[in-house]
Amino acid sequence: MALIKSVKGLTPQIGKDCYLADNATIIGDVVMGDQCSIWFNTVLRGDVNSIRIGNRVNIQDGTVLHTLYEKSTVEISDDVSIGHNVTLHGACVHRNALIGMGSTLLDHAVVGEGAIVAAGALVLANTVIDPYTLWAGVPARFIKKVDPKQSQELNQKIANGYLMYASWFKEEDK
């Protein structure tokens, strides 16, 4: 069972039909929508400020979400996929975006709808990534525009895959 911990009188709120891996850690001021999946060794640390997660978001293994005390928050809209070992610190990710494995997003960065942050990218503080664009590198920079239909198809494929994977674990837990 995932570690769900209150801090400063704030208890995480988990939506309906979510999958939380056995060793996921969810702390404090975290509000999560429906049909999300939080995978192994993931930490959502809402101890110093809020973390808000929409519906059908998958946050993959080893990812850490955190914020700056009273200065930044984490906001993740619906239908977002966050890859393995991502550090997302006080950033905002809009719907249908894809955050690649091993990337880092720093405080007040904004990822637009349908945008893709490539694996291993470092998105510096205050960076604004336009909708339907691909960013990569260290530090991350604009690479190209992404066709909205292709972005939607890619993200839906990943999101649907994670809904299916989560169902395997839910069945085993019965």
Radius of gyration, Cα only, in angstroms?
A: 15 Å
User: Major β-sheet, in short?
Assistant: 11 strands, parallel
Distance between the termini: 13 Å
Give the overall form. Answer: globular
Work out the helix count. 1
> Averaged pLDDT, please?
96
- Please report which band the strand proportion falls in: under 5%, 5-15%, 15-25%, 25-35%, 35-45% or over 45%: 35-45%
Fraction in helix: 10-25%
Find the count of extended strands (DSSP E, 2+ residues). 19
Taking pLDDT < 50 over at least 5 consecutive residues as the criterion, the unreliable ranges are none
Q: What are the key terms here?
A:
single chain; 174 residues; alpha/beta; 11-stranded parallel sheet; 8-stranded mixed sheet; 19 strands
Question: In words, what does this structure look like?
Answer:
The structure is a single chain. Helix content is 15%, strand content 36%. The protein has one helix at 148-173, and strands spanning 3-5, 19-20, 25-32, 37-38, 43-53, 58-59, 64-66, 74-76, 81-82, 87-89, 92-93, 98-99, 104-105, 110-111, 116-117, 122-123, 128-129, 133-136, 141-145. Strand 18 and strand 19 form a beta hairpin. The longest helix is centred in the last third of the chain and has 26 residues, at 148-173. It is globular and about 40 Å long.
